[in-house]
Amino acid sequence: MKKTLSYLACASMTLTLFALACGDSKPPKVPHPTEDGGVLWKECNPSLASPCATGEECRIVPHYDRAVCVRPCDAQTACGTSEAACCPIGGEGTASYCLPTEACTSGGQDDGGPGRDDGGETPDAGDSGTNTDSGTDAGPVTDAGTDTDAGTDAGPVTDAGTDTDGGTSTDAGTDTDGGISTDAGTDTDAGIDAGPATDAGTDAGSSGGSTHIRIMASNLTSGNGQDYDPGHGIRLMQGVKPDVVLIQEFNYKSNSAADLREMVQTTFGAGFSYYQEPGAQIPNGIISRWPIIESGEWKDVEVGNRDFAWARIDIPGPKDLWAVSVHLLTRNSDVRNTEARNLVNYIRANVPEGDYLVIGGDLNTGSFDEPCFDTFEAVVVASGPYPADHAGKTGTNAARAKPYDHVLADADLNQYHTATVIGSSRFPNGLVLDSRVYTPLSEIAPVQAGDSAASNMQHMGVVKDFVVPN
Predict the structure, then answer these.
(1) Which residues contact 343 (CB under 8 A, 6 or more apart)?
(2) Contact 320, 293 (CB under 8 A)
(3) I need a labelling partner for 77 at 20 to 30 A (CA). Which of 86, 116, 316, 418 fits?
(4) Cα 362 from Cα 407, distance rounded (Å)
């Protein structure tokens, strides 16, 4: 699926990286060690602490459209192996590095220095560290203008529904009463804002060569109404500043378009788009920094008060992101596996293989061994390593004993998974957000310590970060 940005990039043909993005084929893979002990070219992420060896630097090599650990060299310094050659990154007069021979002979090297901006993106040639807006324009990052921007960079949180604990849930095998559902907004397009998104404080836009995307699964309702009006879940989302939220029990006040827009603007910023499935008692939905250009619901035949909500999001670059927000039943693992099979069939029939895909939300799974994960593997990566808190705990229910909530990306997107970094804290596999144990709380302001312990707050948030090429 080609997008407007791709067409413009293809038309200009002025930058090597944009030319790569326009092509139908992916850049070549970085060579790995040979059986006889050949050179290992290690990939890296300039946005994070360098994993490179002493004397090496993490630089973007446009031939691969990846950052690679490379050693500086000059005309008098041999690279010591026939597999490498000393050549400049960025053209004549710029620093040279020992690169794979094929990368040296491909030409068009581009400066991808090790600097980073506040959003964690990988800067491209000429990037001085200032970040561009996470929306579609190329201006400097602007704040969303609301006072909900408190806290440091954090990522999306996934939370599981309130119906997963203790047998008091409204959907524990009895939620087939679609007739009592509240109106989730009578206009299915009511909350979709297709305008360019302004930065809500995460500096999460593209930096020319890549885009940092923080995805959160959120079933963070509290109180007696399975809604976000009490404010605990809103603060948790504000604290981690996601770019895309797969939200469950998406109820707020009267659920009118005005109320939902108020919630989205207060929590994320005026430029965010959203979709809420219509006519559901506890609706699923998607909230996005970037324009939602198509959305809808696929029927979950196992339950009557919600379905599978989906949205196609116009992220920067040649591919769209398809986000699917799900809330599986608590009834038993066999029913959840049936729901998973049905969802996989919908995805195969509707989502182009060339686009990115993420499934997330409240799966109500009691363990990582449930059969639904094997079923989901047909379209996404559902195996570990799994997001965790500071102590390494992966459980997301209130007691932190069961993995209810998930963010599952397809192989195309999962290859760009990166650590979730919030302030001085780093979570290599993603974050399970529990305000009761997160420290220091100042990193995720305005979150309060008791937010994850609020009445009927039965789930924790789950966050994963990705850095995708533009």
Answers:
(1) 298, 300, 308, 324, 326, 359, 376
(2) yes
(3) 116
(4) 9
- The C-alpha atoms of residue 440 and residue 438 are separated, in whole angstroms, by 6
**393, amino acid identity:** K
Q: What is the DSSP letter of 433?
A: E
Query: Please, what is the end-to-end C-alpha distance for the chain in angstroms?
Result: 14
Candidates 228, 225, 230; CA nearest to 245 is 228
316 close to 308: Cβ distance less than 8 angstroms: no
For the chain, percent of residues with pLDDT exceeding 90: 55
pLDDT in tens, 260-307: 999 999 999 999 999 999 999 999 999 999 999 999 999 999 999 999
Q: Please give the structure tokens belonging to residue 96.
A: 């040279």
Residues pairing with 339 in the sheet: none
CB-based contact 274:218 (threshold 8 Å): no
Exposure pattern of 42-63 as b/e (b: 16+ CB <10 Å)? bebbbbbeeebeeebbbbbbbb
Which residues share a beta bridge with 420? 427
Q: Closest Cα to residue 195, out of 132, 288, 260, 278?
A: 288
Tokens 């797969």 locate to 246
The Cα–Cα gap between 153 and 421 comes to: 7
- pLDDT average, residue stretch 111-130: 32
Tokens coding 442: 């100042």
Give the contacts of 296 (CB within 8 A, at least 6 positions apart).
188, 309, 310
Which residue(s) pair with 57 in the sheet? 70
Q: Tell me which of 69 and 38 has the higher pLDDT.
A: 69
* Tokens standing for residue 365: 């799974």
Whether the ω angle into residue 100 lies within 30 degrees of 0, i.e. cis, is no
Q: How confident is the model at residue 22, as a pLDDT?
A: 40
Confidence of residue 81 (pLDDT cuts 50, 70, 90): low
Q: How far, in Å, CA of 447 to CA of 239, rounded?
A: 6
What does pLDDT average to over the chain? 76
